[in-house]
Amino acid sequence: MEMRGMMGGFYKLSEWIMRLAVINLLWLICSLPFWFVLWAQLVSASNGQEAAAAPMILLLAVLSPFTFFPATSAMFSVARKWVTGDVDVPLLRTFFRNYKHNFKQAMLGGILYSVLFAIMIIDFRVYLHNLDNLQLLAYLFIALMVLLSISLLHFFSLLSHFHMKTMQLLKNALFLTIGRPFRSFFMAVGVIAVYLISSRFTWMFPFFFGSIIATFTFYNFNFIITKMMQNAGEAEAAESIAEEEQETKS
User: Fold this and answer.
1) Measured between alpha carbons, how far is 215 from 223 in angstroms, rounded to an integer?
2) Cβ contact 176:225 at 8 Å
3) Which of 51, 53, 63, 100 has the fewest CB atoms within 10 Å, i.e. the most exposed one?
């Protein structure tokens, strides 16, 4: 009986490993041009070729709305299914159906985020390397990029979970980032931890890096949304009771 339980647990673990690996690979393949240019940019930076940095950043900003953002949106849609209980969802069909369904909004949101990230990265490099008296301001851009990254994760979660206009998605992503600071901090710490572990064990990047972050991020997002809905329900119930008491007194 104990052996059967162990075998069942091992089988479930192997299923989850397979799911995470498949979705991560699909994510990488569908955004391959973005990753290729990013790799080339990192190689150039490590070789001290600073002149190539700005054009590479601009090229990433152009590519990401059409490759990285739709692929990431599709990955988050699969993660949403897992977190909400549909663990046996067909991976390929779900990924590509949501890739197609959310492509336009992911692209539009991606254009805005890409422009903002490109501006901040270029400004960071300028303040850090070219303006000796203003180097401290460079770290302000790091803080802004962290907030923007958290907002981006909320954007993907909202896009996979709700039917909203693009501007509503962007506004709500910003609201969740600022309005839920402790959860946002927890999310950032979790993503950084996944990155550091993946940097230590580089084989995780092609198989688990993105899918683990998407699952963790949507789990955190789902917790926030569920809590907000519960609080709204409690507030509505309290208001209803207060109205009934007022009617009784009258």
Assistant:
1) 12
2) no
3) 51
Q: Would the CA dihedral through 26, 27, 28, 32 be positive or negative?
A: positive
Q: Alpha carbon of 185 to those of 121, 149, 182, 195, 209: distances in Å?
A: 21, 11, 5, 15, 19
Per-residue pLDDT of the chain (250 residues; tens, 9 = 90+): 555 555 556 667 888 899 999 999 999 999 999 999 988 887 776 676 665 567 788 889 999 999 999 999 999 999 999 999 898 899 999 999 999 999 999 999 999 999 999 888 888 877 776 666 666 777 888 888 999 999 999 999 999 999 899 999 999 999 999 988 898 899 999 999 999 999 899 999 999 999 999 999 999 999 999 888 888 776 565 555 445 545 544 4
Find, among 77, 196, 217, the residue nearest to 153 by Cα. 217
| Tokens 């709204």 -> residue | 232
Q: Which two tokens stand for residue 182?
A: 């402790």
- Domain ranges in the chain are 2-249
